[in-house]
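A.,

Following up on our hallway conversation. Structure tokens first:
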């Protein structure tokens, strides 16, 4: 597994930057789907690429990628596991759908 520092040293693409900016705007206690993020950045069919970009998130404190969930409301993937993602969401007052 890469460390936080290793993620921050790589070059961020313009697509990734748009994804990260959209994710930063999600308020605490709310979620958005990968598809909603893709639509918000003008790339409605790029929802899988949004997930890939979030998997490369260089700063988990500034870019709350745990707030992005699947279209069916389930938590979806997370670098530190779905249990931790669910715990973070519940701690913020968001209620993800059970798997």
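Then the amino acids I'd put at each of the 99 positions:
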């Amino acid at each position: 597994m890469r460390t936080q520092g290793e993620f921050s040293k790589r070059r961020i693409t313009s697509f990734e930057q748009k994804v990260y900016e959209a994710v930063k705007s999600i308020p605490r206690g709310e979620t958005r789907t990968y598809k909603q993020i893709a639509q918000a950045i003008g790339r409605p069919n790029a929802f899988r690429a949004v997930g890939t970009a979030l998997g490369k998130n260089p700063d988990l404190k500034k870019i709350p990628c745990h707030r992005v969930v699947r279209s069916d409301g389930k938590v979806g993937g997370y670098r530190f596991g779905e249990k931790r993602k669910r715990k973070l969401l519940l701690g913020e007052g968001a209620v993800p759908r059970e798997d």
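The two ends are 25 Å apart (CA to CA). Curious whether your intuition agrees with the design.

B.
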